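Pipeline run #58 for the internal structure catalog. This entry was flagged by the ingest filter as a single-chain record with no existing model, so it goes straight to prediction. Upstream metadata was stripped on purpose; only the residue string is passed forward. Reviewer on rotation: M.T. Logging verbosity set to normal.
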Amino acid sequence: MSYVTLTQLAELPGALELAQVATDKGQRPVAAELMDATLRGGDRSAYAPAEIVRADAAAARIQEAVTQASAVMDGYLSKRYPLPLVESNPMLSTWARAITRYQLHGDRISDERSDPIARDYRDALRFLQLISESKFHLGANDPTTGTASMGDFIFHPGNKVFGRDRRP
């Protein structure tokens, strides 16, 4: 199961950044408008066939990074949940986006301690680790926190301890 779509990635981090990191090494990046149309399934008829082939190759690299990010996430989530998860969760999409982005920026030269892409990646892995250890949950859509997983609630009033009709 993919936790983030190409359309979501076109929104953030955006087609320009994705075109820059997913285009073949040594070639000029795919035009941002073409990359956006490719990721969203839009009209690309105004572009040369060779440019469309390059954009498709970049989109395939992005999809491969999405697949790898989903596999990493499944490794953590499978410790606690039966996979695939039935409902999508916005937190999972955010973490998948961070992992995908980090993988696409594999050749990036930066200080890992202050790089926002590396920070988001580390944060995603940290939260996934907490989920696998049952120290964090997915919110209202978490399949392990619903009433079915908690059992039935039974209220039993028991004996009154205080009240006007109780005499010492």
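catalog note: The chain has a mean pLDDT of 89.
catalog note: Residues 49-77 form the longest helix (29 residues).
status: ready for reviewer M.T.
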